[in-house]
Fold this protein.
Amino acid sequence: MSEQPDPFDEIVDAETDRDPDLAVIEAGSRTLRAQAGPPQGDPVPARPADLEVDKALREVEAELATRWGETKLEPSVTRIKALMDVLGEPQRAYPSIHITGTNGKTSTARMIEALLGAFELRTGRYTSPHVQSITERISLDGAPIDAERFIETYRDVKPYVEMVDSSQDYRLSFFEVLTGMAYAAFADAPVDAAVVEVGMGGSWDATNVIDAAVAVITPIDLDHTDRLGETPAEIAGEKAGVIKEGATVILAQQPVDAAQVLLKKAVEADATVAREGMEFGVLSREVAVGGQLLTLRGLGGEYTDIFLPLYGAHQAHNAAVALAAVEAFFGIGAGQARALDVDVIRRAFASVASPGRLEVVRRSPTVVLDAAHNPAGARATAAGIQESFGFSRLIGVVGASGDKDVKGLLEAFEPILAEVVITQNSTHRAMDADALAAIAVEVFGDERVVVEPRLDDALEAAITLAEEESEFAGAGVLVTGSVITVGEARLLLGKG
């Protein structure tokens, strides 16, 4: 009897539109149902109930706000290296997994954290930006550090921050101080492993003072083009800075020009590369109640019946990347051809939450929040909405930042939105609602655009539009355009 072909190889061989090294792993066509586990608590912390603690946290937030924000920077790791030096190099006290890319970084980080925690490792996770609370950015053991610990960590590092400030041409930025706090908190815990997401780019990002044995690069697309470059290849050149000598690189599907840059850097660093679509990937994917059911091909073997309580093909690919990263962390794929315990993997993935990523926060009508803020993210969100929700009529609420490709964002959402309510969030980065509306009219036409500058009014208007005719019993609302907009909407809708 002839040997049966490997289904993973068949998937790769069947891809004809792209280079096989970058083959897209197509989703399975069947639809099955699977029950999610017990409801998880809200992973986003509320304001502290203790008034004194809340006051102290607000004071810390106010002090941090006096520093350069995350969109103003001087591309250098000089200041963060100086801070690490006076803090005693806390970032070297534990092994790390470093994550860069354009989209999917935070969700992938959360999955990696869940997997490591399921194998009884104490984890630290550093991600940005936050959805609602600044304390979300620094997590220990799978949960944001509490406000008291955040305040204590800030006070511990503050004298050293001021010491570095006095010796540099520019003060440490908001993001640099938070990065120092995270690395110090992880060392103090102490953690067994840190999962670190870059803020922007890679080579000169403040997080890039770690020597991570595993570098993860999620899909690269156009974003922050004023800082990182105007093509995927140029952006990849900056993000390749996280690849360190002798590391293992977990490479998600990439544009061809970006992949070439990343592979060249890996060769120069004598790094081992695992590519989605070749060494690992998604074998099958089926829509399920509350998420999706996956079969993943990892570096060490096949993992079946993986329930992931997140929506969209992009999250399945994030899961494959996260699994490969954890296998690489444990040395699988480099001389070890064993699989991890599949039951542990199943439990870990079933526990994952990713706030503000196709997150349902209300029913009747259904309100979905998604932090897509660039065209690539919006396309993934639109596909996830179409696949996972049976909306007969979908109303969008869009508030974006002024430095984004808002026309590309709106064009990606236009096919799935019946109408769009244009608004703005409360930060200085928010694009003026009237300016955004003028672009929306170009994309949607005047009759499909409503303008409500206040987010609370925008939400009310969208919900009213979704409910206005009884024939549209399956109507819903999608709030998107910015992590900040999603976070503020989340609060207004009673979450957190």
User: Anything to note?
Assistant: Residues 95 and 193 are 5 Å apart (CA to CA).
